[in-house]
Amino acid sequence: MGDPIQPVPPAGTQPTAAQPVLAQNVQANRPVCHCGYCRIRSLFGPIMIITVGVLFLVAQYSRYNFGELWPFLLIVAGILKVAEAMAPREGHPVS
Ligand SMILES: [Zn+2]
Fold first, then answer.
1. Domain membership of residue 71 as a residue range
2. How far away, in angstroms, is 33 Cα from ligand 1 center?
3. Per-residue pLDDT tens for 13-35?
4. Is the pTM higher than 0.70?
C-alpha cells in the first residue's frame, strides 16, 4: 500500500526509543513498566471495582443478595493473583 511513512532502520543499528522513554519516566519519579506482571497488577483494582458492581447488579435482579454473592470477590482476586504470579516479567526493572 505505497511507501511506509517511516523507513525501517537496518538491522544492527541503535536501539529503539523504548529505553530512553523508560529512563525519562523514572527521572520524573513515575516509573512505567509494561511487562505482563505490572499490567495485571495495575488492572487488579479496576477489575475488583467492576466485580463489585456486577455483584450488586446481580443482587438487584436475581434472588441472590450481596451477602450470598461476596465470595466471588475472593475468587476473582485469587484468579488475578494466580495470573500475576504466572505473568512474564521480561523487561521489568530490577530495582
Ligand atoms: Zn514490570
1. 34-86
2. 4
3. 555 555 555 555 555 565 689 99
4. no
